[in-house]
Amino acid sequence: MKPKKKIINKIKGIFLTTWGGKRIPYSIGSRMIKYFCGTTYARQNYFKKKIRFFNTFLVESGIGEVNDEVLNEMLKKSFIKPWRLAAFSYLSDKKLDRYVQISNLKVFEESYKKGKGVILLNSHFGQAEMSISLFSRIGYHNLYTILGTSGAKKAKFTRLNPNINTNTLVFDSFSSADLFKVLMEAKHILNDGGIIHLLGDGYHGKSGITLPFIGKLRSFRMSYAELALSTEADIIPIFIYAQKNDHIQVDLYPSLDKGNEEMSKEERIRSIVKQYVDLLSNKWMESPQLINPGHIEAYLNHVDK
Q: I need a surface site. Which of 8, 169, 202, 215 has the fewest CB within 10 A?
């Protein structure tokens, strides 16, 4: 390993320790990451493969070329991401107010006050995992995040501030039966007026709806739509991402339209899922630099057209 790369990886390792998440201030760490990602060495050497991979995606998806600013944002947002999530969870209340901007919080509050539960529909886009610590900080302690065992063991979850109430419903990533049990638990939580936080673009489970997505056909799971129809819970799409100044933007959208009793259950589920897929597709096209690299890879490996 070349000396410079070895030094960078050593510093990266410090960021990714429990100490790093707790002790490296969010503002200072963010500036350090921004500086490094903008260096010639980072662009031409350290991230050479990642940039080539990203450019391949831009061509195949039809998004086309992007400017250097977008490329820098992609590197900055994905580099040492678990540290950013951990450091965010340790922000003081004062700094949380300074760094976080929530759009349409009233939309969420109105749905929550109905008492029929809320499904927060997230995705592998931006800093989605910040939802886990954020909502508890703003007073919603009955939020439960559905996670597979493989995801729950990752540093981006295990190194969050332990003093923050983070409820999870964990299922065996390779067991559809286990996922079903967790969804039944989720249904009880929603019936009690709680909040279920899950990903709408995950690959867990066997059943799904195939829809066009960025020039390809992709299967999307429909568990959140089924949960909503069986509990009358509202489905609120949410996107969280770091802005250019590293402040955090939280975008909450109006509840997805669940249709009416004149429609069959299958028609309603398909309509709900399509609304979400259309929204996610627009996000991918508008801000490709915020897409989870793992989902870019899944897109590239998917041959259905």
A: 215
Please, what CATH class does the domain formed by 100-301 belong to?
A: alpha beta
- Cα-Cα-Cα-Cα dihedral sign, residues 286, 289, 293, 296: positive
263 is written with which tokens? 């429609």
What pLDDT score was predicted for residue 3? 74
Largest CA distance in the chain: 67
Distance CA 138, CA 248 (A): 14
Distance CA 151, CA 155 (A): 9
**Distance in angstroms (rounded) separating the CA atoms of residues 74 and 296:** 12
Q: Is the pLDDT of residue 205 over 70?
A: no
Provide the mean pLDDT of the chain: 92
DSSP annotation of 39: S
Contact 212, 265 (CB under 8 A): no
Reported confidence tier of residue 206, pLDDT bands at 50, 70, 90:
low
- Is a pLDDT exceeding 80 seen at residue 154? no
Sorted by where each begins, the domain ranges of the chain are 3-82, 100-301
The answer to whether 240 touches 99, Cβ cutoff 8 Å, is: no
Cα 109 from Cα 135, distance rounded (Å): 12
- Extended beta strands in the chain, E state: 100-103, 118-122, 143-148, 167-171, 195-199, 209-213, 216-220, 234-242, 248-252
Measured distance CA(292)–CA(147) in Å, rounded: 16
CB 58 within 8 A of CB 66: yes
> What's at 221, amino acid-wise?
R
What was the pLDDT predicted at 304? Answer: 57
Query: Distance between CA atoms of 12 and 15, rounded to whole angstroms?
Result: 5
Amino acid identity for residue 15 in this structure: F
The confidence score (pLDDT) of residue 301 equals: 87
